[in-house]
Known about the structure:
Keywords: Hydrolase, Membrane, Transmembrane, Transmembrane helix. By secondary structure, the chain is of the alpha/beta class.
Amino acid sequence: MIHMNKLIRTIKIFAICVFVLICFFIGSHVLVLITLAPVRANIGNLPPGYKEIEFRSDSGEDIRGWFYNSSSKKGTIILLHGIRANRLAMLARSNFLIKYGYSILLIDFQSHGESSGELITIGIKESQDVRSAIRYIQEKQGKSKIGIIGSSLGGASALLADISEEIDFMIVESVFSTIDSAIRNRVASKIAKPIALLTPIAYYILKYEINISESGLNPIDHIKKVKCPIFVISGRDDLYTFESEAEEMYQRAQTPKELWLVSNAGHVDLHAFSRVEYENKVLSFIERHMN
Length: 291
């Protein structure tokens, strides 16, 4: 009888564990699908001085955005937003840089804002959008100097695009080092740290949905190939991209390179968080390497 009770108890525990795993699998699948779903937005009125643009991307989608053409001809800076955002997230940076004579290209990544697309791909198709944006500027501006500022997904996509030989500088903000750490850190932050141990399940769901290899979504494997000046920026209190990840990204990068870990900042808009210091540091970096 005692052995029978132990057996029943063991079966119950096993059943509970299986149930929890099934719930996590279903929950992970739902969360992945929500994360990858397109984020449509009516961007609104065109700001003064900008013009609406559209180009066909190598991703197969029609990319929409705004272009500001400065009369100073100092060069063009492409601004790349984070996941589930759009060009408006980078507009404050744009207006700051315009004051110093730079032309600006703001785009909505595929499956974001007003651009077409049916699935966010965490950098796979978005990196093709980056390459196409550079080509668009080259066709419109000739031999104009080009720089990139990318936040989170924007920075990751710039690194994954492997376009450093075609630009004069790159600034990457709050960029995950590997897709594994990106998933694990977000699960631990939003749900619970123990559940983050099940990250491989979420990763394989993601892999199935967007058809990628793990190595294809690791910015840290691409940053070492960047040949232009690069500035790595991240928040010291970022729970999605740890300080140690930013430091390792910086260590892997070639010179010239810079690192700024923003005190007390999480995974936030770093320009809005520390506007004066951000503008001073970023402008200094751009002026040194763009001119």
